[in-house]
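Submission sheet (multi-component)
Chains listed below:
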Amino acid sequence: MAMDALVRQGRDLRVDLFRGLALWAIFVNHIPGNWMGFVTPRNYVLADATETFVLLAGYAAGIAYGRIMDRQGWFFAASRVMGRAFTLYVAHIFLLVVFAAQVGYSAAALDSGAYLDELHLDPFTQAPYRALLEALLLRYQPSFLNILPLYIVLLAMFALALPLLRRPWLMLALSYGFYAVVRQTDWSLPAWTGEDWFFNPLAWQALFFTGCALGYVPRGGKPVALGFRWWLAAGCIVLLIAGAAASIILYFRWDIAEERLPQAVASYLAGIDKTAMHPMRLASMLALTYLVAHAVPREAGWLRSRPAWPWVLMGQQALPVFCTGIVLSFLGRMALEMSDRWPTQLGVNLVGPVVLTAVAMLTAWYGVEKKASRTASPLPSPAGADTG
Amino acid sequence: MLRVLTVLALLLPLPGLGADRPACDLPPELLHPEPLPAAAAAIAHGHLHILAIGSASVLGAGGTSPAAAWPERLRAVIAARRPNLDVTVEVRGGRGLSATDQRHLLNLALGNGRIDLVIWQAGATEAVRGLPVDGLTDVLTPALQQLRARDVDAIVMDLQFSRFLRANADVEPYREALRIAAAAAGVPLFPRYELMNHWADADSVDVERAARDARPAEVDRLNGCIADALAAFIREGVREARRPPP
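Outcome: structure written.
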């Protein structure tokens, strides 16, 4: 089968492309010490792959479950959403087991417990049964395993809020109102460690519901969209340039930051948190989305070009690619733990994207084959929905 | 200026140095000292009272003895260079303490007597436990600003470089948070992570690659390197504070 045939057409390929890029960036950013980490957007935008992933996950959910709700009602659509959340939950628990095995293995291999503050890195050695319980309750989230718990809670909130899709402005008003309250009160979900979740879902929901509102297409209607206004675009550009300048100075030209950056600016930047989605990060992500949506036409030919298709394909098969990316990042970190010189760097950054693309191809092929066998059989096919 | 510093650091005797291994140098591009006016004023009056606050490493975890920990080594390095200076290094901290715990210890210590310079080794516990990053900045920035308001100098020391830690904990967000919190308070950051990474790459000192029985000696060696680098960092900060404003 031609590779291009695996890419599902008839959908907004821009969304798939950027989702694919976000999945790749999540893989890269989950490997501290990876040189590719210097080129991912987090270095020059005050929003990174996690924000992109959440926004586009909301977008995909808005399209798919909105359609199901319009056809089969809220209760059925909500059940489907919760089914998806359960799949994510199972995937999360699987990744957790992989993580625990990895920590145990490398702790034994390196024996660094003596001088590092690693006492709590692996609660499985200290209180295994409690750790297991807390992990099942999502109250214990080891490093690198905090995106799926966020996504699971967002989907659960979405299942309840589904009917609001039909009144998108009301949904957005409620969502942003709640976001404002959460920012003011510091409400969050509790973690086992006595602190809060690494990503606060109560704040991150604003981005997710924005995605839902943009994605949902009412029957016979048009989706929510902001038309092109030059002053709005100019505002977005100014915001992103300011964010880029600040990020580049902070990450790469630390000497400038210390000598010339006014302390007030540094103070402001210090307050930009990712945990509860600081308004600057939210605004940067929205500005980026607005500009990209208007700069890249939906029908742009290059979206169907050969260099674009691996990313589009990855974006279309988001869940398996995400999980594979997390597992691969474990392996990448182990490899860099052994040696972080250029041969390993090269290997990690070649093998990673190739395997991710292969997984996306395999999943897409499986989907195509399944569909083909269903069309051949006399049984009526249920309405298919994919979100990821 | 920093080239001079590097040369000075190279001239310092490094105990336990194997003949075939390079000394732990101080690459000038890694260190950006800032003026330490309180320390400069204290030295002019013949004393320097330092408070080292942090988690396991301030107590010399993994080394041969508590005397081999970097705070004690720092005191020894400064005392050797300035025999007439009354230098003390007080240590507060312990394994697994978060920035909130450390701030509490800091406030207690500040109530006990004059301190000229606080070296705050922060972020390790947060990174290891995967605690929310904003919790670290929320504690650190106001505490550092408060120190400045009280005319106490501060240096923020970041995480240890370790391949194990890097593979098993999400270190980058915490390193960034420490850097930004220090900048927000106008306080210099001592880049322990980058220095240790550099020394490991140059094979000057690499605890994780040392044989298990040689490990405590290697940790001592690391503490010696950290102490020398810190001493040079402080020296340069004091020099900058004395420089007349342009």
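Remark: Chain A has one domain: 3-110+123-218+226-370.
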